[in-house]
Amino acid sequence: MADIKLTIDDQAVTVAEGATILDAAKDLGIEIPTLCHLPDHPPYTSCFLCVVEVEGQNNPVPSCSTAAADGMVISTQSERIRSTRKMCLELLASEHTGDCYGHCHITCPAGIEIPQFIDELAHGKPGEALKIIKRAMPLPSALGRVCTRPCESVCRRGQVDEPVAICNLKSVAGDPDLKAGERWVPEVGADTGKKVAVVGAGPAGVSAAYYLRQMGHAVKIFEGQEKAGGMLRYGIPAFRMPRDVLDTEIHQLDQMGVQWQFNTWLGKDYTIESLQKQGFDAVFLGLGAQAASPARIPGEDTPGVVPGIELLAKASRGEDVDLGDLVMVVGGGNTAMDACRTAIRKGAGKVVLLYRRTRAEMPALDIEIEEALHEGVEMRFLAAPVQIEMGDGDKLNVKCIKMELGAPDASGRRRPVPQEGSEYVEQVSTLINAIGQKFDTASVDGQGVELNRWSFVDSNPKTGQTNLDGVFTGGDCSPGDGEMIAVWAVQAGHKCAASIDQFLTGRPIVGLEYEWYSTIGTPGGPAPKQILERFTPAERQTMDMISDDQRLGGFAEIELGFGPDKGKEEASRCMLCGCDATEDCKLKIYGTEYHIEPDRLAGAIRDFHYDDSHEKLVMESGKCILCGSCVRTCHDHGLDVLGFVNRGISARVSPTLGLPLAETDCDGCLKCVEVCPTGALMAKPGATAD
């Protein structure tokens, strides 16, 4: 046979007659993506992903079925080819029905692989669970106690009985490590010779430092307060966030080689420019938002009016606070609940919460509202202060007005509308304003950092880049599309660490890499019936608490934790949503590489169908992309258990006569699993081929 010479991506190659373009590219080490190609089988050309451009031909051709010809000049990565492949992938993915990840995972701002770490706990492996959590978030025990739990609100288990106690399970994974003689700390990368200044030791700064050290960069954290933790320490009381837990968890940064400088304020003791002159190659601003939002009512600066976060900071430092006998707290979030409960512990005779909407609209976690009520807080709804004046003695006269709910506002909640003529006066000893926090811009004034119209540091939401070269920001001082909560701040620190590493190594700055994944429905939406009916109700574990006498006598932690036994029991309730083939799924790998957007191609999607009747094999036909690999492989094996049914858009791969797999001749060889590109066919855990 005559040898054939051709050029692929400017590289010359010689192949034997009868070879395809795909064969020739493989000889050069050039990867051409394909979803349906099986070596030693005739080309199937169902996915059309392996298309290439051949000079002189008008249209792209499939490389798996096009014979190499002498003198061909081929391009495998032109803009036209990448666009064609993207469209092919989007067509396949647009009808794909499968969960790459659980809804809890994709809703978690930090991106924690929640089903995976819970599965480790269910098998009694807290150490392995901890490592999984710490891939995405460095503070499992701290965040497990105070996170607002967006993951639990979308947990599919809640459609069977109650959501899995995901946040409590983070502590089950993290707490044993805190008490271990030798704690697990991630490996630090080889020294890059680059230095990064992290301004702020809150969750964003701690997270940024944690990931930057793993990348090998030297890190020094500058913190204005006397200790690390930010709002985790100074904005959340110790009965929810024990200081020994926080201190021990943050101590891992010392073990990783992070340096510290406390009692040093940006804008007062140093500037961004001075950090750069000290030789820092990049700066991360994780400044937080520790200034109280104003109430914008007359008299709010009257003595006796205290910002909620100021009260919490003083309590955190153990300072004496004289609140008097009757305390009014204004607000409806977790900070307001913390202020109420802290006031009780600081000796207030009576604590009254004033909130302008009803309980149904309160943003605080329901458990925090219940705990405040349990501790004696009186809650008054549909009322708000409109003026504050000094009264007799040291009392405050607070003029309030009654509210009613009108049409929904931008938050989706019904707007509180004042009732004309409903004013009344309450006399209190202290009024605590807990309606929110804002970023104090004084720290960056005059340093060239641009602010947005809400007076936060302006930054690229995907990368954290500011207008200053080499300066990045994230967390409460620059929340972007996120919320001002700790788990969002942790994610921001992680994202900016990735961006800073890209900046320092001269790569394009994109932040955390794009990842395409498939999901069934929208997070929190109704799940397919066949998913839910596989599970029987199982009661959610309850948390043991300290006694009422113990809790109101100080700031001891109230929740006692699940412990290993309850933790294992609760972990076993997890439905393990997601796909075991995620890391190897070619559709996901290529979908990520080509940044596909299948949602723009509206149309029919496959029904969810789950067949786990076979002792070794699971089939999810909604994930099938009709590549035919399993059908051909099963035929090669001499069984023909799998075959095509129907035609056109209704075509499907199905077991013989539509039977459950267990009723077919399938012998469990698992060869179909080996060739399936998507996880439509998977081996059960521990299953091996005969």
Strand tally is: 26
State the CATH architecture of the largest domain: 3-Layer(bba) Sandwich
The secondary-structure class comes to alpha/beta
Global morphology: globular
Mean of residue pLDDT?
Answer: 93
Number of domains: 5
Number of helices: 23
Trace the largest sheet across and list its strands: 2-1-5-3-4
Task: State the distance separating the first and last CA atoms.
Answer: 42 Å
Percentage of residues in DSSP E strands: 15-25%
Q: Report the biggest beta sheet as strand number plus sense, adding barrel if it closes.
A: 5 strands, mixed
Highest CATH level, the class of the largest domain: Alpha Beta
Rg from C-alpha positions? 30 Å
Please give a quick description of this structure.
This protein is an alpha/beta fold.
Protein architecture, described:
The protein is an alpha/beta fold. The chain folds into 5 domains: 3-77, Ubiquitin-like (UB roll), CATH 3.10.20; 103-184 and 517-571, Orthogonal Bundle (Fumarate Reductase Iron-sulfur Protein, Chain B, domain 2), CATH 1.10.1060; 195-289 and 439-504, 3-Layer(bba) Sandwich (FAD/NAD(P)-binding domain); 292-438, 3-Layer(bba) Sandwich (FAD/NAD(P)-binding domain), CATH 3.50.50.60; 605-683, Alpha-Beta Plaits, CATH 3.30.70.20. It is 28% helix and 17% strand. The protein has 23 helices and 26 strands. The strands form 7 sheets. A 5-stranded mixed beta sheet has the order 2-1-5-3-4, sandwiched between helices. Strands 8-7-6-9-21 form a 5-stranded parallel beta sheet. Helix 9 (203-214) runs parallel beside helix 17 (486-504).
